[in-house]
Amino acid sequence: MKKPFSLLFPLSSLLFMLSSLLLTSCGIGDDDGSRLGEQIVGTWYRDSLVLEGDTGLEPEDLTYHRFDFLGDGTYNGMLRQGSFSAISRFGNLIYEGTYKCDNDNLRLEFTTEDGKRQSIHAQVVSFTDDQLLVRYESDEYDIGVKLWLKKGEATTDEKGE
Asked: Using DSSP, how many helices (H) and how many strands (E) does the chain show?
């Protein structure tokens, strides 16, 4: 019969190896080395939008259609800051302000038409060179919003033609 100590050693070794394997496979940061700060600058179009929660709102009620993120601020390899504008499907300016982003967060700060300073803090769920999925909570409507954006040119349908 083996002593309890001799059983603990193999078990603790196994747990250590498993935890090491899980940490390296889950990754701390991005496995491919991508940085949202390097990808964000440019024009992004709304691809899809999902509202989570009990509300009378429809995705069409949120009119922003295009986001222009400028590289006019700072970038230190992790955090990018710059200015942005949100444009409606009809080409009208909705918001204009500043943004900050890293691989996990996107924060938009702007002033509303009635002069109120507002900010949206979105969680970056995933991103590639040309696609971005963010999720944020709207305190105003007590809902969650998932927003898929794609980078590049709008199609004819997206231009409202």
From this structure: 2, 8
